């Protein structure tokens, strides 16, 4: 039975949001967590992360590796 990809994406988003500022998730770590939690395929886990990236709720960052995190606010450096 396949889980609803939007529900998986929301779960993924919550995981990233809960550790905002203290940890960064690698995409593979998110895939593994969702595969274990929702019993889905890696293809479905990738599709769920793609939903979040395309909707700009999460972004890929490339600094000493590839990570998935919340997007920064515009002008945040000025705060």
How would you sum up this structure, described in words?
By secondary structure, this protein is mostly helical. Helices cover 49% and strands 10% of the residues. It has three helices and two strands, in the order αααββ. The protein has helices at residues 5-18, 27-38, 42-54, and strands at 59-62, 66-69. The protein has a two-stranded antiparallel ribbon with strand order 1-2. A hairpin with a 3-residue loop joins strand 1 (59-62) and strand 2. The protein is globular, with a radius of gyration of 13 Å. The model has no long low-confidence stretch (mean pLDDT 88).
Annotation keywords:
single chain, 79 residues, mainly alpha, two-stranded antiparallel sheet, 3 helices, 2 strands, 49% helix, globular
């Amino acid at each position: 039975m396949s889980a609803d990809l939007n529900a998986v994406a929301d779960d993924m988003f919550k995981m990233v949001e809960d550790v905002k500022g203290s940890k960064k998730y690698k995409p593979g770590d998110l895939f593994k967590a969702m595969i274990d939690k929702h019993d889905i395929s890696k293809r479905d886990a990738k599709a769920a992360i793609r939903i979040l990236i395309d909707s700009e709720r999460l972004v890929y960052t490339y600094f000493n590796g590839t990570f998935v995190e919340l997007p920064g606010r515009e002008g945040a450096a000025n705060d």
